[in-house]
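Hey, quick one: can you model this chain's 3D structure?
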Amino acid sequence: MPRRFDPTRRDRIIDVTVEAVAELGVAGISARRIAARADVPLGSMTYHFTDMDELLHEAFTRFSESVADRFEARLVAATTFDEAKQAVATLILDDLVQSQRELVLTHELYTLAARQAGYRSITRAWMARSRAALERHFTPEVARRLDALIEGLTIHSALDTEEHDPAVTVRAIDAICRTDG
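Sure thing. Here's the predicted structure for all 181 residues.
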């Protein structure tokens, strides 16, 4: 049987892994399951990735970079201080807490990074990009506080059973931005 030319196979495997983690969690995936979902032979998994750890690292890197790209785009589009505060609110209220998929993926990555130092490079790079984007408009101290607010509200949104009041988020952003720092 002739080999199938498939130049996008590696990328497809990574994309399928991101979606599988969002649906099943890291504990629920395997090379066999990913290969089946990506419609590739199981041998392709070992051809493209040395092990599941390398594949997960690639998948979480792709996911975190896509979120960071969106984060940066929102803040780059802001031209005034008030627009920057609104961009932060939009990031929290529309981009981050509205997507169950992204909430799950974020927490799956955080769990891996808490347990395995190799994944902390992904979270560190993501945090650095987020803070750099925030520092376009805010002091480093305020950017750090806003970043902590974003992370905290993301966690609360993933776990809370009550509806979050968007006005609370806007007031928190205003309070942080009024502080010296």
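One thing worth noting: Residues 9-178 form a domain with the Tetracycline Repressor; domain 2 fold (CATH 1.10.357.10).
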